Amino acid sequence: MPKQCFGKSHVPLSPAVRAGDFVYVSGQVPVGSDGLVVRGGIAEQAEQVLQNVKAALALADCTMDDVVKTTVWLEDARDFGTFNTVYAKHFPKDPPARTTVESRLMIDIKIEVEAVAYRPV
Question: What does the domain layout of the chain look like in residue ranges?
Fold first, then answer.
């Protein structure tokens, strides 16, 4: 089965791509529907990022329950505890495998998250 791309972006990437039974969600950043980085700290930015992941998954008819793996980049490792609190609300049961690292990010944000979902076609 060929890959299927979902959604559009202002940069050269697809928000979500299906390859067989897997859906890959590009790294999501804390940008609201107005195109601006959300105000606030890690809690507000993590919430927006996870809402953006959810929206990208929906493009491919997936939900957060379909996520099997996430990768998280935090601008500051000291935000890990607060991030975990927000993250747990989005994955209350059987959370996916996850990698979390501290990293300098491409724009002035505190977090970026990508996801892989499994949903047989």
Answer: 4-118
Task: Count the neighbouring beta carbons within 10 Å of the beta carbon of residue 111.
Answer: 27
Superfamily of domain 4-118: RutC-like (3.30.1330.40)
Least confidently predicted of 4-13, 79-88, 93-102: 4-13
Pairing state between β 67-74 and 97-102:
parallel
Rounded to whole angstroms, the Cα distance separating 22 from 85 reads 27
**What is the number of other CB atoms lying within 10 angstroms of the CB of residue 39?**
10
Whether the predicted model's global pTM rises above the 0.90 cut: yes
Residue in this structure with the two tokens 């989005």, named with its chain if needed? 90
